[in-house]
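for the writeup, i need someone to sanity check this before i put it in the appendix. the sequnce is what the collaborator sent (i think, or maybe the updated version? ugh). structure was predicted straight from it, no edits. if anything looks off just tell me and ill rerun, i have time this weekend
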Amino acid sequence: MNGRVLLLSFLIVLAGCAAPIDPGFADTATPTTQSTGQTTAAQATQTQTPTPQATPTAVVAQDNPWQEQTLTVALSIPEGDSRDYEPLVEAALAYWEVNSERYAGYPLSFDLEPNAENPDIIIEFVPHVETCGDKREVAGCAPYITDARQVRRPETIQVLSGLSDKSTTHVLKHEFGHAMGLDHSDEPQSIMDGQASLTTLPQTNATERPLPWDHAELSVYVDYGVVPEGERAEARAQVQHALDYYAGGADNYVPENVSFVTVDSASEADIVIRFTDRSPCGVDPGSCGAVRGQDPDGDGALETYTHLEITLTHIDRDATGWHVGWWLGYGFGFEEESEYPDPFRGASYSDRRGEWWE
């Protein structure tokens, strides 16, 4: 019996970076001219002539730090990236056009012009957001703007380029919220919360990779707790045969650079091998294994393994190595018997107790 335990898809920090404020006055008075109160006849005639009415303009809310009701948004896309980001940006902008007054306190609209020469905001899609203020490992970064003196046109919003469409739109909404003056404690929390479980674009599953782990040196902890003292030397030798077999390439079934190092604690081990009196899998006698890992693209299949647990219950000592070897193969991405090296395919009772590693 086996199982796969999924971790959170991609828990990552969403951030905003405070923008500086220029020293000086927030606004200036408009110059006015003084009048003596006396006019000439010509002036009087002119004042009676109807003047054209000015074209009405939108009134900008006093709380709007951008001092404009409509902002022009441009895009910056990495060279060679052919992904169509425009629908994702449009979805995020459409959300805030409907909700900016409710949450930010002022109405705002946007013109998406990907190649605009003088935009108010540039959305920059990047493979990595190095830092955002004092935050690292973030999915996006935007200026946190609450005052007109903070605005430096064009402002830049950075967003990770490898996220799924749904997560990209979420990050865009979050970062635009910062640019409108919202922080992580503000509503809507479904968008402005500082952490989110995000997914990436589709990635290769662990079972389809040459090595399912993100490193080739794997740490191993073995718990011999229930093995009688007189049998431990043989148990250790059997476990070592299995480890040596895979460290030697397993007949070219695993990469040549795979190696193992023994550690003293299960908490620091990639692979834990336990000898128990009772099986957690309901097989007694027998063996079972389970892997844990990461599923960043959210497809329900692990893309990287982070832990392998092997449990052996009442296994004959001379069959121990074969059972450990079988589950090590599972930890290297083998799922069907046909995918395993020869010693594990169609092995009989006696084959499992022979010197299969030779």
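The chain has two domains: 11-19+64-197, 206-352. Confidence is low (pLDDT under 50) at residues 1-13, 21-57.
thx in advance!!
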